[in-house]
Specification:
Length: 220
Amino acid sequence: MKTENGRDLTTVKGRLMEFLRTRKISRKEFSEAMGLSLNYVGAIRKSLPAERMRRLMELYPELNRDWLLYGEGEMLNDRDGTPATADGYAVPLLPVEASAGTMSQISAGVMPYECETIMSPVRGVDMAIKVCGDSMEPTFSNGDTLLIKKINDKAFIPWGHPVVIDTENGVLVKALYPGDTPGEVQARSHNPAYPPLDIPKSTVYGLYKIIGRISLYQSY
């Protein structure tokens, strides 16, 4: 497949050049932003190394990675950065489990393009993550996939509602409440067999609102 300008869209290089053309980005501007030489850009053939892809996705989040690498879907993601298809919205499934009972190890430095992709039936989702454990039953069960969105303004924390909590010790899914001291928050399970956890605010990297859930039986 070729464009009107004769550009070959069956190659990664051809698709990349077409993206730059449509965004009115010169090769010089692109090479400087990427920290590459013009000769390197001109020599691109099959693909880009992982570290180059990481930088590319950081600079141009509107670019659909699957279109660039495989020619699948549309060139640009939708307005919230999520590639839309007839089956829903493609979101990255993080290779780390949100522990519903005990803290689990965080997979640090993972970029969305390095993750498995799943389809979300709703838009506005940043990523997906699986639940491990039973402390949030009956609300969430072991193996459920949670569709989540980062809470950017901590002034609007949904107190009393389940959220995904990213901490320096691991990832949790719990109902969040103000702590007994100003420097803490309290994470509570829905399963009464599990005691609450007091978490120092200084160890919390981020909070994520749960937009939906996908399980073997139902989704919302």
